[in-house]
Amino acid sequence: MILSFLILLIISCEKEEPLPNSVDPINPSDTTQTGSTDTVPLDDPLIIEMIPNALTDFDGNVYDAVRIGDQVWMASNLRTTHLNDSVIIPMGSVPGGSRTEPYRYAPNNNEANVSAFGYLYNWPAMMNGGNSSASNPSMVQGICPKGWHVPSMAEWTQLVEYCANHNELSCNGDPFHIAKALSSNHDWRQSPNTCAVGNNAVTNNFTGFNAVPAGHYDGSNFTWTDTHWTHPTMGDLAQFWSASATSENAAHWTGMSFQDPIISGYSSLPFNGYSTYKSYAFSVRCVRD
Question: pLDDT tens digit string along 62-75?
Answer without folding.
Answer: 999 999 999 999 99
